Amino acid sequence: MNPAPRTVVSPPRQVVRAVLNEALESKMGGEVVVKSATVSGRIFVVEHKVAWTVLTGPGARSFSTALIDAKLVSREDVEQVMAECRKSGGNFCETLVSWGLVPRDTLRDLLCHHVRGQLDTLFGLTEAQALFVPQPRSYSSQLTFELAELTADTMQPQPALTQSQSPSGPPVLLEGEVMANVKQALEEAMKIEGAFAVCLADANSGMTLGSVGGNATFNVEAAAAGNTEVMRAKLKTMKALGIKDRIEDMLITLGEQYHIIRPLAAREGLFLYIALHRANSNLAMARFRMADVEKTIQL
Predict the structure, then answer these.
(1) Angle between helix 15-25 and 104-123 (nearest 10)
(2) Angle between helices 173-189 and 283-296 (to 10 degrees)
(3) Cα–Cα distance between 113 and 215 in angstroms, integer?
(4) Are 238 and 230 in contact (CB under 8 A)?
(5) Rounded Cα gap, residues 28 and 43, in angstroms
(6) Distance (Å, rounded) from C-alpha 183 to C-alpha 40?
(7) DSSP code of 4?
(8) Residue 40: beta bridge partners?
(9) Is the CB of residue 208 less than 8 Å from the CB of residue 222?
(10) Coil, helix or strand for 34?
(11) If you write DSSP's letter for every residue of 104-115 in order, what string do you get?
């Protein structure tokens, strides 16, 4: 059983850094989940190093957007690489390198600057909550970073972008549309009677693509990350038994709550996760409504 998530109490501007330091010292590794009024983020730690970061909120840019803006790859390249990673469980960056799309050194430099910028944003939050979720995680890439490498002032400057490539310009249309679509679907799921938290997550990486709801005692992103292990275990069991079928949904019944995990039929590896108060929810109706919500998600 994995250790329970832990929080660290520090001055407001130091809380994220303090929790990240704890994660980097952990033998197991895991992820740091950060929440504030405007920005949320996740920092993935593997073998005492930072492997990946995800930031959501005003001005947040994905690494794929950074690659496209730098004209290293096209949008079509990114979509094909992501499709291959979902199919094979491979690493996004390593696939870019193995396909000959981006040289490893160039990719590492850009990734380092991208992660550093996201950490700077998270470290600069004046009022944020941070939670370390210990979790053993395999990571099929050596593109990881010491914290000192991400905070050093001697890092090489990022190649200048032309005005048409400026990060402050309009976001990639595809990603903006996807984010809006996911948000709308999750907000619709929250209208299900009894619902108090919902998210869309990736079972391969444990990352949350979007979330709504939750509270101080129920971190929906941490819960979704933990339930990726449930998804993997069930799929592994089905494979071992030779069951060639798809999972429609999985139900976890607690004394006071229902948790429903619903994999997306259209996108292997992604799943919807919703938590409901058992006392005022209708399980059959909730499952029916979740099936409808799934159909509205376009990725």
Answers:
(1) 130
(2) 170
(3) 32
(4) no
(5) 14
(6) 15
(7) P
(8) 35, 56
(9) no
(10) strand
(11) HHHHHHHHHHHH
Higher local confidence (pLDDT), 207 or 150 = 150
- Model-wide pTM > 0.70: no
Question: In one letter, which amino acid is 211?
Answer: S
Give the HSE-up count for residue 289: Cα atoms under 13 Å, Cβ half-sphere: 22
Phi–psi pair at 273, nearest 5 degrees = -135, 125
Neighbours of 171 (CB within 10 A): 16
Question: Which of 296, 60, 277 is CA-nearest to residue 186?
Answer: 296
pLDDT tens for each residue of 137-176? 667 778 899 998 888 543 344 443 333 333 333 322 234 5
Of 26, 3, 36, 24, which is closest to residue 130 (Cα–Cα)?
A: 36
| Beta partners for residue 208, in sequence order | 201
Q: Which residues pair with 35 in a beta bridge?
A: 40, 129
> How many other C-beta atoms can be found within 10 angstroms of the C-beta atom of residue 181?
15
Residue 151 in tokens = 């905070």
Residue 280 has pLDDT above 80, yes or no: yes
